[in-house]
Every structure is written in C-alpha cells, then in structure tokens.
Design a protein that fits this description.
20% of the residues lie in helices and 17% in strands. The chain is built from two helices and five strands. The strands form two sheets. It has a three-stranded parallel beta sheet with strand order 1-4-5. A two-stranded antiparallel sheet has the order 2-3. β4, α2 (46-53) and β5 form a beta-alpha-beta unit. It is globular and about 45 Å long.
C-alpha cells in the first residue's frame, strides 16, 4: 500500500480543523491493524524529511524512493480485502 508521510510525530491540521495529515505512526498502526503486507510511504512531507535526515525510521513499512519502480504480484484467487470482494 502506498501511504502518506506528510506528518512525522504530530498530525498536520488544516485551517478550521477540516482534514489534515495523519502521522507516520498513526498510518503504520492502522496498516498493521488492517493486515497491510507492504507499506511504502510515498507522500513525504518536511517533518518526515527532517526525521529521515536525523536517521529515524518508520515503525512499520519503508520510505518510498523517487524514481524507483514498484511492482505488485498478482493476487491469489483466495485473496480478499477486509471488506469483501477480491481487489484486482
């Protein structure tokens, strides 16, 4: 799964409290809870870039690399997402 990493340790809230960006930790926790097998952070914001520069790593998953090609393996017939039908 490709996920955002705009916020490192504090959520980013939009003006008026409408929406925003979750922290890397919150995204990782939710991915684990939902059984995500591979988590790649693709939308990396300044707070996360500072964390990368300081040597920090996400609790789960990996940082995406610009220019890298990511491949998906075909789903097995029995593969189902958490809400029901097979994802193709």
């Amino acid at each position: 799964m490709f996920a955002e990493a705009a916020a490192w340790d504090r959520p980013i809230r939009f003006r008026g409290g409408v929406g925003g960006h979750a922290t890397v930790r919150a995204v990782a926790e939710q991915a684990v809870r939902l059984g995500v097998r591979r988590l790649v952070y693709a939308h990396i914001g300044r707070p996360s870039l500072r964390a990368i520069d300081a040597g920090s790593k996400p609790p789960e998953g990996e940082w995406g690399v610009e220019g890298r090609t990511y491949s998906l393996r075909p789903a097995r017939d029995s593969a189902r997402n958490h809400r029901g039908p097979r994802i193709r």
